[in-house]
Amino acid sequence: MVKFTHDGIRINGVERPLYSGSIHYWRTRKKDWRHVLSQIKGMGFEIVETYIPWSVHEYEEGKYDFGEIEEEKDLDLFLTLCEEMNLAVIVRPGPHINAEMTGFGYPEWILMDEEIQAKNPWGTTVLYPYATGPFPIPSYASEKLYEKTEIYFQKLKPILQRHCGGSGCICLIQADNETCNFFRDRPYIMDYSDCSKEQYRKFLAERYGTAAAMSERYHRNYSGFQETEPPCGFEKGDFSSLCYYLDWIEFKEYQILAALGRMVDIINRLELPVPIFHNCAYQNYTPVSVQRDEEIPGLMAAGIDAYPEPGDTAMLKERIRYLAGSSRFPFVPEFGSGSWFDREVLLTAEEERFGYLYSVMNGLKGVNFYMLAERDRWTGCPVTNDGRIRKPYYEMFSDLLRLLKDHEIYHFNRSPRVLILKNYDMGRLKALYSVMDCNSFSSNCFIKGPDIPAALFLPEEEPEFYLDRELNYWDDAWVKGLAKRFDEEHEIYDYSDEYLDYDRWLPYDVIAAASGDIMDAKTQKCLADFAGLPGKTVILGPVIPRYDRTLKSCEILKHMVEEGEDSGILFAEEPGEIGAVFWDRLRRSREYGCEDPEIELAVHRREGSGYHLLYIANLSGEEKTAFITCAEGRRFSVMQGPAEIKMEKDGITAQISGYTVAILSVEENV
User: Fold this and answer.
1) Residues 303, 331: Cα–Cα separation, whole Å
2) What pLDDT sits at residue 236?
3) Is 58 exposed, middle or buried (CB count within 10 Å of its CB: 0-12, 13-18, 19+)?
4) CA proximity to 648, closest of 626, 621, 670, 615
5) Nearest Cα to Cα of residue 396 among 347, 330, 333, 342
6) What is the largest CA-CA distance in the chain?
7) 3-state SS of the chain: helix, strand, coil percent to 5?
8) For 310-343, what is each residue's pLDDT tens digit?
């Protein structure tokens, strides 16, 4: 029996941290499997991960190869070897796997089937512009796609069942991979196939019940849902029909959730006693939602992948803190180790180490390193395809695993006092205008497109509703400004959005909610309730909401803001408007402080432990000497360096190298 825990996974009653790494068995010679796996074990890994690519095993429709023709495709033997070597295995059967494969793991006969292909607004097939050759994108609404997928999965079933339960090695299975329309996440690019349009009309029927109700909301006349055609772009000045466009944006979210739900159902019919998870590519905005993914029955956890640039703390801080604030289990299913073939950067071992430790510092609980074993279209891994080691990377991972496991780092937890709720509805409004965003015609990851400023595609006339001028979905000027202010105060925070369950809000003292003219009544009510709790504060801005998502008047928060600060709500059109009283109150109860804005601190505690961990991150490329204030009666020792510390009257002086995370063990009351 396997299940997720708060800190890792429990396999046959034994909890262990979820630290794993990728190896692709079909890309490594069978005679090298044992040697490569031995090298991976030598770094301290107890779990490996592998895709099971459909295009590799069903090379022609109805014709399979599981080692009968090419020995490297013997999945059953590979899993048996992992069991012999006492390695647990995470399997990822797709059907979409990416893996830098042309076709992303789909067989060519699937992609070339007209009934399966996604269509653009003009009815032609949408192509993914991959570096090694474009290929058609399948439609998430295609029934034929799921029928063919299930046939393939049922072929996998006896192999997977043999390696589940008891002494079996399989511990987790993934439902699909990066389900986001192959990174084509702008709403008007696709999908306009007949099956997608039918799903869209089903969505509208579920939402409105009658065509008359929909007509009233759209300010248009429909006698039935079948008359509804999806928008191909926002018509200039058509604000009276805004719900028509916003419903299409929300349908794209609905379609992804439905696709994931179908994949979970298909996996459930394999009858495997292991948890199912999913990985989002990089989005925490429409059409993707970690929280709603985890509401799909049978889907236990949803993570987000991370491939940082050297010293990329901004992305990691935002992404990991979003997972810490949103997911049941803050997990990065693909954390870059090495790099793909057409990327322009390869991180050094120390640059990778910094990113990994910085993510743990910010709340990461589980991680799969992609890749540990090198293969075609990937380089810079600790183990080569034939089992040799790259010493700097190999030693880095060995040291990292020893640190994380020997000190049981995964059992220590952050306790941030602040939760920043991003404005998911603002992303929808931005998506509404995205038809002219030429950057969307690049592949987002593998082929560079024109670097055209998004601001050029804002409407010339003033929109009826507040529209954040940072038109990237993931950017929000108010949120960025507030986060910067909290960073300057060395106040730790998490991120989420209004889809987070209210019960998850309660451990925080402060909810900072980014708002526009539109905010649904449930969220407004939750914010009002939170503000009324003893010792709790809501920061709201930059706009006081006026409407719910159906554009009906909803002014729950407006009335509270008018009551003033006694209501528990601080309204700030700009983050700089938040008064000194609020910041002074936070400072008085802060455990550690530092004046240097390039030094970041975090405290992790473990229940019942006689000590806590103090993380010190130098976000600059230069060595720094930082003074850190703290209470008296504490004894510090360096658990992870390089760092030198010196006790002072009111704190410690820490000398720490550039782009380094130091971890101090701190005893209190000594």
Assistant:
1) 5
2) 74
3) buried
4) 626
5) 347
6) 78
7) 35, 20, 45
8) 999 999 999 999 999 999 999 999 999 999 988 8
φ, ψ (nearest 5 deg) of residue 31: -65, -15
Per-residue pLDDT averaged across 254-271, rounded? 98
Classify the phi-psi angles of 495: left when phi > 0, otherwise alpha if psi is within -120 to 50, otherwise beta: beta
**In Å, what is the CA distance from 166 to each residue of 8, 12, 160, 272, 581?**
19, 8, 13, 12, 59
Helix ranges (DSSP H) in 269-348: 290-293, 313-326
pLDDT tens per residue across span 515-555? 999 999 999 999 999 999 999 999 999 999 999 988 899 99
Helices (H) and strands (E) in the chain, counts: 17, 30
pTM score, two decimals? 0.96
Provide the percentage of residues in the chain whose pLDDT is more than 90. Answer: 83
How much is the pLDDT for 641?
Answer: 85
Query: Strands 47-51, 19-22: parallel, antiparallel or unpaired by DSSP?
Result: parallel
Question: What is the distance between the alpha carbons of residues 230 and 244, in angstroms, rounded to a whole number?
Answer: 8
Per-position DSSP letters for 427-473, written without gaps between them: HHHHHHTGGG-GGGGS-SSSS------GGGGS-SSPPSS---S--ST
Q: Write the DSSP string, 218-256.
A: HTS--SSGGG----SSPPTT-GGGHHHHHHHHHHHHHHH
Residue type, 121: P
Residues in the chain: 670
DSSP run (H or E) holding 260: helix 242-268
Query: Who wins on pLDDT, 244 or 342?
Result: 244
For residue range 291-301, what is the model confidence (pLDDT) as tens digits? 999 999 999 99
Alpha-carbon torsion, ordered 194, 195, 201, 205, to 10 deg: 160
Q: For residue 471, is pLDDT > 90? A: no
- CA-atom Rg of the chain in angstroms: 26
Euclidean distance between the first and final Cα of the chain, in Å? 44
Q: Give backbone dihedrals phi and psi of 357, rounded to 5 degrees, phi first.
A: -70, -35
Dihedrals phi, psi of 501, to nearest 5 degrees: -55, 140
Taking a C-beta distance cutoff of 8 angstroms, is the pair 368, 20 a contact? yes
